[in-house]
Amino acid sequence: MLKRRLNRVLPPPPGCALSLCVRYLRGAWTANILWYLKHQPRRFSELRGDLPGISSKVLAQRLRRLEEDGLVARLRARSSPVSIEYSLTDLGLDIQPALAVLVIVGEKIKRRSLS
Amino acid sequence: MLKRRLNRVLPPPPGCALSLCVRYLRGAWTANILWYLKHQPRRFSELRGDLPGISSKVLAQRLRRLEEDGLVARLRARSSPVSIEYSLTDLGLDIQPALAVLVIVGEKIKRRSLS
DNA sequence: CAGCATCCTGCGAGATACTG
DNA sequence: CAGTATCTCGCAGGATGCTG
Q1: What is the CATH number of domain A27-114?
Q2: Can you give the residue ranges of every domain in chain A?
Q3: Interchain pair A102, B11: CB under 8 A
């Protein structure tokens, strides 16, 4: 059956740069995954440790989409005990400043909600 | 029936500042709505014009959540022809720099995908 | 004008179990 | 270790129509 990847969800929001970028961060975990890849490549189970509560299914899904979107690269490091490293591509690096600002705003929000 | 608002979606991603902030931008239109409120207060139908393709239902939902989250303020401007103005709160202003960076990254992405 | 009501689709996510 | 399979739930969003 023809799979209808018609982009029905998130379909015709204005094609401006903001929507373009936000689209990459869809999903509750996506931004955090990119954040933990900032400093070094990480393996699947390392990322699962970084993100307490994520299921392997969701992590695999997010990583797969990030790879499709060209933000994350996949490298099979070893094969005897299977080991796969995920790292940021150039595009993934480009998006990091945006995440940094989101973190700063998030901390402001946190402080505000405490007071 | 007891409505189970258990926050099942987006529930226990690490409670870090990044997740906190990303939570406010959930939804395809949210970031754009905030963006169009940046320079001046806007009325409902003005926003609908700003965001070609959005339905009034979705716009009303997003505005309501933004109001709950404390990012947007609602002001009944006139009552004879009902007119309601939406504007950014201080918190809504705080998040603007993050959106600005997302726009810049989005433009980089756009340029990259053209070449 | 500024929405709300209703019905429907598709995706993100959780839980659990299983595999090479 | 790095996933896949199956099931269920809830939300974002579209379409259409209606209201004060």
Answers
A1: 1.10.10.10
A2: 27-114
A3: no
Chain A to chain B Cβ contacts (< 8 Å): 131
Residue nearest to nucleotide D11 (CA to C1'): B9
B55: left (phi over 0), alpha (psi -120 to 50) or beta: beta
Spell out which residues of chain A touch residue B99, defining contact as CB-CB under 8 Å.
18
Write the DSSP assignment of A27-63 as a string of letters: STTHHHHHHHTSSS-EEHHHHHHHSTT--HHHHHHHH
Taken as a whole, chain A contains a residue count of: 115
Rounded to two decimals, the pTM is: 0.90
Q: Whole-number mean pLDDT of chain A?
A: 88
Task: Note the pLDDT tens digit of each residue in B32-53.
Answer: 999 999 999 999 999 999 999 9
